[in-house]
Each structure stands twice: as structure tokens, then as C-alpha cells.
Amino acid sequence: MWWGLRAVLQWLGRLGGAGAGSARPGAMEPLDRAVVRCVPAEPKLSLRLVLPDGSARHMQRDQTEPLGRALSRIATNAAKGRVKAGKKSKKQRAEDGESELPELPEVRLFNRDGLPVSEEVPNASAWQDGAVLQVGAARYRVERNPPALTELRLPRSLLAGFPVCPKVSAEFAAPQHCLFRWYRERRPESGGEGPAWEEEREPEGGERVFTPPNALVGLRLKLRCTPGDGAMRFGPPVEVESSGPVEAGPGVCTFDARHLYTGKVSERGSVRVISYNILADTYAQTEFSRTVLFPYCAPYALEVDYRQNLLKKELAGYNADLICLQEVDKSVFTDSLAPALDAFGLEGLFKIKEKQHEGLATFYRRDKFSLLSQHDIAFSEALLSEPLHAELRDKLDQYPVVRDKVLQRSSVLQVSVLQSETDPPRQLCVANTHLYWHPKGGNIRLIQIAVALAHIKHVACDLYPNIPVIFCGDFNSTPSSGTYGFINTGSIAEDHEDWASNGEEERCNMPLSHPFKLQSACGEPAYTNYVGGFYGCLDYIFIDKNALEVEQVIPLPSHEEVTTHQALPSVSHPSDHIALVCDLKWK
């Protein structure tokens, strides 16, 4: 594998210039490049080339314009360049008997078969990959929409033993077709000047994700990425260096033993599911969090870059098919999690909370599932506007204080309908949420979960009749709460004590019910949230027990592991919550 990539890169280098073009050795003539970017959704195409006088030209033309007009413009630009290169004034040209108007070079476009393209053909159709543009004696091979990198970025924090997942954004290319080469900084030697790099020849050195060994502690990394597409075309390579050196890892982490159960992706017919509140950076970095909530946690271990190292290694090691995350910062999703999990074969969806910087993320394994539809809602908006909540809305209007509190909350529900890639008749309704957090907000959570279950019923019973439901999230509800009991049993009485969770002034008695037969796949652990002043079970993976059953539950970390550094988060655990992981199968 390594020698194959090296050979391709060496061949790309022999092409000269930016090293783009067809990947068929010998198929390219030693021509200059005319790069054309033509996207159907945009009105104009762009053309970039370097004229014989050495001047670069970047033109934009209407896609519907006849080719002849574009060729005329190229001829005019080329003539102007020749005049400028000659450095003659108007007076000198007059004395030499030369015309003030420069002579226009012949400009023609030939298709792949060497035949001239009619000047009446629209630009969008004329400029095809492999065509040849002739400007006077100069000839250019047209590259239409060649692969190109728009962003290549390395994480700011690098830990030995933890995967480094670069952010790769490309146009007309896909990360799975790109070529990656990693380099390590050469240790300084006496008398040496400046940084020097040597190619990383470990087995992972040619992969998109690289896990630096302990031997690289103290050294920076460099990544060289050559964008490619499915047709084996390659664009100009881009290099990026890490901003800092590889640092030593924290040693044993709380999830290391759990990975022993998840070394491989689950078998066909099984689905490995994760639900995890990953602790949003927007909350971890407050003064209150550092001094009151998590005073026991080393400050560097609360930094988002450090925690992302742990989180990416933890999630990658579970080899999950479905991942439902809560408290996901928008920037963390875009810049860290989505690129990392994409490299491990998962597609990500994001739903931000109203007027917040964090929200929910659902990831699904691409070779197991495809996305049929999304049905995300904000609880407050849905309760106000959707007809299916009219009855609940009427009941709630009798309790204006509670109604207003519900409508002020920013909580959302993420609902995705997935179809099995290996067994298309099998579909899943995957829901993900994070309910209101306040300890006295049991009545608010009951209203929120009623809205959620009514919406899930609409999707899983009305839109997609009788498809199984997997409902994950941080419900901020212990097993003794009304919310848990309502989900688990299908109903809640109007006199349940949680209706007065914040005192008699905010009591709102109403009976509720839902049609699902749900069970907690991971049971009722002693805790899924463990901080200095509280521990309890708040997170669940609820499954439709009529259609799904539990194959295995991945054991949670031992109490000794959780409390090694007093509580969570810690230098060996990225969140104040613990991931729930289980394997399910269809009945």
C-alpha cells in the first residue's frame, strides 16, 4: 500500500506545475493547464490559465454564452499581454510603423478527438475535460472541475496514542479518494538549521487518520494531501504542519477496557448504538464550571482540544453503527467530530438548539444505513404551531405559568429515518433529545417528552407505518421520575407528584399516554452522570421491544475507574457523562 501511494505521488510530481490531471501514465502531453470550474447551479464558469507572456488570467463567463465570445476575450487578453511585454509606447509604435491595435492571436478549442469545437456551442458544453485550447502557438489541456482542496487543517492538540483526524474539505474530490502522506519532524541535530521532515513509514503513514506513537512525543507532524476523485484524477497537493508537537497521552482511560467488547463492527442484522452527552465546551469553560462544578478537574483537561482527543479515540473504538450525542458545540461538530467520524465511515447530522451554540448530533454508519428523511423539531415551536399537539396545547393553556416556562426552553428533538443498506425493507426511526435540566423541572420534562413521543408517533406510525423506534438522549430524569415512568409504561396519572415538581403554584395535572412499548436497553445503571456534587442515571437508550431486542450491553467503567481522579470529567475521561453502548438486533 505504501509503495503504491508513493509511486502515484512521484508520478504526479513528474507532471509538473501543480501536479493535476488524469491518472493514466503516458496519457497526458506536456501541455500547460487551462483550469475550468463549471458548476450547474452557478450562472458563470471560470477559466484560469497562464498566457505565453507569463501573465496569469482568471476569467468568468456566462455558461450560456457562445464559445466564440470567450475565445475572442482570450485572444484580446493574450494580445494585450504581448503589447505590455514589448514595452513600447504609442509614439514608438508610430515611429516604427506599427499599429496601435495589437495583432490578435488565433484562439481555438479542440475536443478530445482533435476536432474544433463550434463557436456557437455554449460555454458550459464546450469546455470539456481533456479538450485542448490553442492560443497562438501555445497549447493548453483543459481540466474541467479538477479535484481541489478548499481546507486542510490539523487539530491543535496532538496526543501520542490518540488518532489525529485532519479536517479535509474539497471540491470535486472526496476524502476517500485523496492521497495522504504524514511526515514527522526530524529531531534537531547539532549544527542543523531550520526544520526538517522525514516521511512517516509506519503502517498508518499513508492513511487519512494517523495515530502518533510515543516515539514522536516532542515532534511536530506535517500532512501532505493530494485531492482525488473516483475517476482517479488528482489535483494539486496541499501541506499543513501542526501548530505544536505531539504530547504524551494520559495513560489508561476509562473507555479502554470497554473497547475490548467492541473491537469489530457488529454483524449483519445487529446494530451497535451509542448515546452520550459529551459536555459542550460552552459549559465546560465557564468560571462556574471550573471552580464549582468541576474544581477537581485539571484545567488543561477541560480544554476542548484536549477533550476532543479523548472523545474521538473513545467513539472510534466503539465501532458503532448509530451514535446519538448531546451537548455538541456547533464548531466541534463542524471542525472536529464530523471530519473524524467521517474518516471512520459515519455520516453526521446536526440540530442546534434555539438561540444556543450547542445541540444534538446523530451519526450513522454509511455501509449499513442510508438516510431516508429528517423530522427535527424545536419543542416550543412544535407545541405552538403543529396540529398534532392541539390537545396538549389546550390542556396546557389552563396552566399559563407552566406553559410559558415550556415555551421559553430551547430544547430540541432530532428524528432521522434510516434504511438498512444490507436489508432495505428494514427501516429505523432514530430519535435523539436532551430534556430540560433543572432538578425541579419534572413537570417541564413531562410536557417535553409528551411532545417528543407524539412527534415520533407521527413519524414512526403515520409517515412510516410500524417502523421500530430507537430513542436516545440525556433525559435528565432518574428511574424514579415521572418522565422515565411515562416512557417506560406508556402513561402517567394526572395526580403524579412530578406535576408539582416546582411547588403547588406550578402544578399542572393532566393524564398523558403514548402507544409505544419501550424499554431501556441498558437497564438502570447506578449512574451515567458523575460529578463532585451529584451522581445518577440520567441517560437512556429506549428501544421498541416489539421489534428489537438487546444482544449485549457494553459494561460501564468500574466505580474505581470513574473515581480515579475523584469524579468526571478528568484527564482520562472527556465528559461528566458516561457513554451508553449496546448491541441490538431485530426480532
UniProtKB/TrEMBL annotation:
Cleavable signal peptide: 1-23
Coiled-coil region(s): none
GO molecular function, one term: metal ion binding
Family: Belongs to the CCR4/nocturin family.
One GO cellular component, as annotated: mitochondrial matrix
Domain 2',5'-phosphodiesterase 12-like N-terminal: from-to ranges: 146-247
UniProt name for this protein: 2',5'-phosphodiesterase 12
UniProt-listed SUPFAM superfamilies: DNase I-like
A GO BP annotation: positive regulation of viral genome replication
InterPro entries: CCR4/nocturin_mRNA_transcr, Endo/exonu/phosph_ase_sf, Endo/exonuclease/phosphatase, PDE12-like_N
Compartmental location: Mitochondrion matrix
Segments for region (Disordered): 79-103, 187-210
Obligatory cofactor(s): Mg(2+)
Keyword list, A-Z: Exonuclease, Hydrolase, Magnesium, Metal-binding, Mitochondrion, mRNA processing, Nuclease, Phosphoprotein, Signal, Transit peptide
Basic residues compositional bias, start-end: 81-91
Species name: Coturnix japonica (Japanese quail)
Sequence ranges assigned to domain Endonuclease/exonuclease/phosphatase in this UniProt record: 275-577
